[in-house]
Amino acid sequence: MKLFSAQTANWLRQRAENVAAALLVAMFLAFIFQIIARYVFNWPVGWTTEVCILAWLWGVLWGAAFVLREDDEIRFDILYSAVSDRARRIFTIATGVALVVLYTVALPAVTDYVTFMKVERSAFLKIRFDWLFSIYVLFAVGVILRYVWLTWRAIRGDVPDIDPTKPGAAL
Question: Over the stretch 119-132, which tens digit does the pLDDT of each residue have?
Fold first, then answer.
């Protein structure tokens, strides 16, 4: 049973890329505004630093959870490409199970900590920290789902293509 069609998955991936791009634009515009305000108008502003940090934090974790493809991940390709397909499947299953277990075990504590942070607010924008750090919960859930899916594929016998020069390699 397929969860999403290829067209739906592609559309979702493009929207995730749009969010990541918007975060980069927000960070860039805040940075430029900060430079102009400080050095042209001699008007130092603090909120731009918060926007840059927030956009960077959300951009990195959003991108890692929803935008990166398997062939974008950093791995020990020398070892991985030197072994058989069966060994690659075993590597994928072992890694996937370990990551799913670790992230799943940590998820309740992470969620508790993020929700606890509602008592704090950012210095300039007064945004509650639970809202700021909620991206980590999304990231953790995204990683769990990704590795459940990769592990399931490996168990079924599918080994991601490791040649990044091939069109459509990996995911």
Answer: 999 989 899 999 99
Q: Which residues contact 121 (CB under 8 A, 6 or more apart)?
A: 127, 128, 129
Q: Is the pLDDT of residue 169 over 70?
A: no
Tokens representing 133 are 């750090």
Q: Name the residue type at position 65.
A: A
Contact of 74 with 81, CB cutoff 8 Å: no
DSSP-assigned letters across all residues of 103-119: HHHHHHHHHHHHHHGGG
Q: How many CB atoms lie within 10 A of CB 77?
A: 11
| Closest among 93, 89, 105, 97 to 140, alpha carbons compared | 105
Tokens coding 7: 């067209």
- C-alpha span between 67 and 12 (Å, rounded): 10
β-partners of residue 128 are 121
Instruction: Pick the closest to residue 106 from 146, 137, 73, 147 (CA basis).
Output: 137
Sign of CA dihedral 27, 33, 39, 43: negative
Asked whether 107 and 30 are in contact (CB, 8 A), the reply is no
The residue type at 159: V
Give per-residue pLDDT as tens, 64-81: 988 887 766 766 677 777
